Every structure is written in C-alpha cells, then in structure tokens.
C-alpha cells in the first residue's frame, strides 16, 4: 500500500504558491557541488609530498582528512599520518573554497525551480555561489556566508597553491563558516536577526537537504545554534513544516518532538530530481489530478521520473 504520509504533496503545493521560508542544507546543491574529501586528497597528492615540520591542525582538516580510509593503490605511497601531518592547514581551506564555487552565474535546476515559486525567503546554508542565479524577487540569506569566487580562483591564490606559500590571512579573507560546529554567538549575526523579524509573515517552512539538523554518530549537530533558533521560532510562532529529503525520518522526529506538535510533514524526494520534475511540467499536470486521487498520482509519476533520471545517469 502506498504510504501517503511519506509524500505530503498538498503542503508542498500550498508552500510554493505562498510566501514561505526555505531552509537549504547541503543537499540543495547536490550533485553539482560535492567537495568530497577524496577530491581534496587527490589535489594534495598532485601538489607533492611536503618536506615540512608538523603543521598546526584545524577542525576542517580533521573533518576532511583523517576520517578517510587509506588511499587506493595509486596513492598508497603516502602514509596517512604523513598526509595529515604535513598538509598545510591553509591549503585545505583554499582547496575546499575552490571546490564549492563555480565560474559565472550558472543556472541549475535546484535553484532555477524557485523561478516558479511565490516570492519567499531562502535561508541558504550552502557556501557555494549556485544561488546567485535565483530570481531577485526572492530574499536570499546566507547564515554561513559565501565564498567569493573571484578571490578563491584569483591568480594570486592559484600561485600560492603552486608554491605552498599561503599566508594565514588568506583563508580568513574568504569570510565564510566552514562545515563545522557553529560558534555559540552565530545567531546574533544580521542574517538570523532578519529571519526572526520576518518569520511571522511566512506561511510555511520547507527544509531541503540532509545536512540541516543532522545528528552524527556522536549525537552532535554541527548547526546546533541554527537548529535551536528555528525550533524556538516554530514553538512560539507555529508554522507547517515540510522536510524534503530522501531520508527525512530522523529530522522529522527531532523537529516534531522539539516543537511538540503534529505540524511536521515529509516529502521523500531528492531535491535535484524533484526540481527537474517540476521544471518538466509533470508536477503541474499531476496537480490537476490531486483533488481526485489524494496525491497518489503525483507520487507514481515522481517515481517514474526518478527512475528515468537514474537510468540516464547510469548510461552516461
């Protein structure tokens, strides 16, 4: 039997037609932006082995390197401990910044789809620049800020990478919050204050992507401060919440128990697939039938569309 609770198309249809708050985690930019640790490790390899004293560590370096399994045969000549110890922290910072930015104003489905939604607020935790192409009628807030493309890919930065002469001031000049635990005072930033003052006017809250409120194996949440602020807003100014993610259950139960209400729903979809589903016109056509079949037709069409996308990707 089709589990209707997994696909609240009615709330999604309502949200995109009214002023809403979209909270965008890292899943919103996948697969275009995917700065995997393996990519960074390969870049480090191509820069050579560093005959250097032990470099100071950093949370970002610890997050991206030591947790990985050893290199494959191609890279096995580098002992893991040497890679961790002799890789300059600033190199990690710059390589990460370069991998999450793309040249120009690039139109991708995950953000182009907002052209078809009512004017809303995008609370975008992604540090990349893909949302630069979002229609100007939307109000875009970047609580973790963005990496400036021009700086990350400037000739001086590329030269610094080549000769491994990266000043300590360079990573800080990027001015963005890395994918690390948030500082306790982050919610005093202007982005958060703006969201709080405008929250009352939002008709619903849509959470997209798996990273917002993600709880690791150690029970820690990187964006704890942001998560707690959103939950507090929902407690005092209740809104209907929709979580769009292929595996939404853990976040669903966490938010529902925190706000102590039954106003949280889920849409078990990959955002990039759902965005293309909408842009293709299939969602609009299926919505015409929703009144008669309670959304089951939309779900069936979405599944078929997802299969086509996956088959095309596997062939490519």
Please provide a written account of the structure.
By secondary structure, this protein is of the alpha/beta class. The chain folds into two domains: 4-33 and 105-143 and 189-315, TPP-binding domain (Rossmann fold, 3-Layer(aba) Sandwich); 37-99 and 152-174, no CATH class. The protein is built from 15 helices and six strands. It has helices at residues 9-17, 37-46, 59-64, 80-86, 89-99, 109-112, 149-152, 155-163, 169-174, 190-198, 224-236, 249-259, 271-279, 282-293, 296-315; strands spanning 21-24, 121-124, 139-141, 204-208, 240-244, 264-267. A six-stranded parallel β-sheet has the order 3-2-1-4-5-6, sandwiched between helices. Helix 11 links the parallel strand 4 (204-208) and strand 5. Helix 14 runs antiparallel to helix 15 (296-315). It is globular.
The CATH class designation of the largest domain is Alpha Beta
How many E strands? 6
Helices and strands, in order, run as HEHHHHHEEHHHHEHEHEHHH
- The whole-number mean of residue pLDDT values reads 80
The CATH fourth-level homologous superfamily of the largest domain:
TPP-binding domain
What gap, in angstroms, lies between the N and C termini? 33 Å
Which residues sit in consecutive blocks of at least 5 with pLDDT less than 50? Answer: 49-56, 67-78
User: Which structural category do the helix and sheet elements fall into?
Assistant: alpha/beta
Shape: globular
* Separate helix tally: 15
CATH architecture of the largest domain: 3-Layer(aba) Sandwich
Beta-strand content estimate: 5-15%
Largest sheet: 6 strands, parallel
- Which range best describes the helical content: under 10%, 10-25%, 25-40%, 40-55%, 55-70% or over 70%? 40-55%
Strand order of the largest sheet: 3-2-1-4-5-6
> How many independent structural domains?
2
**Rg from alpha-carbon coordinates:** 21 Å
